[in-house]
Amino acid sequence: NAGVTQTPKFQVLKTGQSMTLQCAQDMNHNSMYWYRQDPGMGLRLIYYSASEGTTDKGEVPNGYNVSRLNKREFSLRLESAAPSQTSVYFCASSEDRAGGDQPQHFGDGTRLSIL
Amino acid sequence: DQQVKQNSPSLSVQEGRISILNCDYTNSMFDYFLWYKKYPAEGPTFLISISSIKDKNEDGRFTVFLNKSAKHLSLHIVPSQPGDSAVYFCAASLFAGTALIFGKGTTLSVSS
Q1: Is it the case that residue A74 has pLDDT exceeding 90?
Q2: B95 pLDDT exceeds 70?
Q3: Residue A109: closest CA among A31, A1, A3
Q4: Cα B69 to the center of its chain, rounded Å
Q5: What's the whole-number mean pLDDT along residues B24-37?
Q6: Least CB-packed of A37, A66, A102, B26 within 10 Å?
């Protein structure tokens, strides 16, 4: 079972370059999420999509855009990368709203370095 | 202001003993609490959760205790095994919320 698949796994960018991180889930989940994790920090929500066709900002949305392409796919775009966006990015999905009875399933992350 | 706090960055335990990981929270509106386990170079994996209307939930070697009056929860692992060595994140969700709020994590090391 693939679950949540993120591509690429690693990427190095120069400041000012643009990039799209891809995420796809095969569990027929309604909700999808993008988080970033920085050293010594927990995961912080960038954007989420409660259902196909909707997206909303999370805790740290500045510098990012998202697209919920269809029910399976949720992409994260950096229009003009900055060194502060060096991080590990995790995509997640859940059947419905996040919660104990609807745990989120995570991909293995994209490690992004911006020089 | 951190709503979910894991004040111990690391914990070392011997194989076979009990591991106790702690988590404090500030928002009384949280309705579910979850624990995730994360190995290096992998995504977090859901471990166990507890509803705010309960005070204990058990799944095999893992038990989560919730003390609402103290706004504190803990994860007990008994007996601890070397394969339990990982980073453990405490997370919480708001009623009718849309995403999880994570603590910074505790690195558990279980030595054989």
Answers
A1: yes
A2: no
A3: A3
A4: 18
A5: 93
A6: B26
